[in-house]
Each structure stands twice: as C-alpha cells, then as structure tokens.
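Hi P.,

Sorry for the delay on this. The queue was packed all week, but I finally got your sequence through. Input first:
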Amino acid sequence: MKSFGFLPAFTRSQRIGLMVLTMLIVLMQFVLFNMNQFFSPKKLVYKVPKALQKQFDSLRLAAIEKNKIKIYPFNPNYISDYKGYFLGLNPDEINRIQAFRQQGKYINSKLQFKQVTGISDSLYRVLEPYIKLSDYRKYKKETYTPTGHFSSFDINQATAEDLQNIKGVGPYLSARIVKYRKAIGGFSSKKQLDKVYGLKPEVVQRIWQKFHLNKQDENASKKVFSTRDINLATAEDFKQINGVGEKLSARIVKYRNSIGGFAIKEQLNDVYGLKPEVIAKIWKHFSLDHPNKNVKKINLNTVNIKELAQNPNISYQLAKKIVSYRTLNGAFHTFDDLLKVEDFPKSKLKQITVFLKLKE
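Then the structure:
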C-alpha cells in the first residue's frame, strides 16, 4: 500500500516522532538563547568597609604624589633649558625668556614672568607660588651683564643658585658654601672660603672674581672689645656681634651671672634666643680664658628631688625620674649612666653634670 503526504517513506508513528523531536530541538534552542534573560543570577555586590576604603584612597594618593615631580623655588632669571623642561616649559617658552635676558633685561615680577614666557594660565597657577625674586632684587641693575651673571656682589648675600653660576660650583658645592657661611655667621675674611670642603683653588679664585666681601663684614673681626674673656665681657661688648641686640646681650650677662660665670662653652647654648650661627660668631670674638671653677656641685647619689630640680637644665619631672632610677638601680657610677634615665636630654649632659659630682 502506497503512502502519500508528509514523509511518505515513514510510518505514521515515525512521522509523529520526528515532528515531536523537531519541536523539542526548536524549543531547546529558544530556551538556550533566552536563558540569560529568564535565569540570570543576581549580581554579587560587595560593600567595601569605610575604613578599608579610606586606607586604600590614602595609599593611592600617596602613590600619585610620589610619582609627581617636586617643584622647588626658582628664580626665573636663571632658568636653564634643563630646569625649564622640568618646570613644564616648552622650547619656545624657554627661548623667549633666554632672549629676554640676552637683551640685558631681567624679570622683576611674577606677572612679568608670565608675559615674557607666554605660558598658559593653568601652568602659571602651578608655578606662581614657587617663583622667587626677593634675592634677585638685591642686585644693582648696573652690575648685571647680558650673560646673566653679576660683575660683583656681596658673597654674604649670595644664594646657592647665584653661586652655581660660577664654573666649577654645582648644586652640592653651592649648598656647602651657604651651609658653612651660615655656621660661622657669615664670611668675615676671604680666607674662610678656602675652608669649604671640595672647593679647588682655581674655583675659589673664580668666585672672588664675581663676588666681593663687604668691607663692613671684613672689618668685623677688627672690632675693639673691652676683653676677650666671655666671663668678663660687658653687654656693650656682646652688642657688637652681628645678631646680638639689646635684649640678647642683657640676657647673656644675666644668665652668666645667675650661674656664677660660664664653666664650659656649652653653657652659652642655654641662653634663650641665641641661634647657633650667632653663638658661632660670639666664639669667634670671645674665649673662655677663665672658666668658673667655683661651681657648687651636689652629690648625684644623695641629692633629693627638690635640690636636683634647681639645676638650670633639670625640670622637676626629670629630677623625679633620675631619683627613681637611682632608687631602683643603685648609685650612679659615671655620668653616662644618666643617659639610661627615661627622657634624659642627651645634648644637655655636659651642662647638667657641671653642677653634679658622684662622690663626696
């Protein structure tokens, strides 16, 4: 019997089975295609604790800050190609400022720096706080040369940047010169420059070709004092030292009298308001020829808290700690044992022990 219609080669049950299978395949394809819409799982949301987020943000900002180029104060009259590059200036802007300087002109205001270079407003806002012109204004206009150097200038007023214009003086040597000058309270003789470590004779010679020593500074060491002994000097003697005025001179004399005279040089450091560079100047003109040998010394191993606190460099709290340490650990055998006491000021050891003794 012949079979007609859909898939004539198959029986009726086979045709039904194929149709069902085809429908299942289509259905499965539809389900798989739309599964994300019907069965998409909810997204997992993790809430970061505020403390952890704050720590992460601080570390991120620190990393950004670390990678930023640090800008230092600069004088626009001394910008080199190298420095201009790190300040963010393009070649045209650097060329404009160099051409301006070649005409024998100099920048004397922050706004003029912006006008000469033609930098953008955003870059100007970044650089404006670092533009330094105060030292440059000290120079006299007639001493300026088209090369950007000065024919002669007081070395005690020169900045590290000024000194770098001398051939052979780089960043390290210029900083060393300024540091040494500060330590001695300013150059008072040309020979002092020779003592700066690393300065070669030919470089020193080039420095004195461009800089000079103010006569007032040069004559400072020739001032007449009533005495060279600091324990006999008057307030008027101290006032002759640059940096010691009416109040400081009176304060030195008052403190010296209160302790019965200086026994060691370090005691001058205890005078309130005296800066290290001023102290260095004082010792250039005075000496401790007759130290105080009548200092009243108290026994460190028997003294009580109240008596110990009378020491100019020992507070009541420190006196309590010293006595407490002695009670727990026994007598002090050397003055260095004081360094084991909590919060003991190591820098004041010499001044403190001037008034102490270990045995009767």
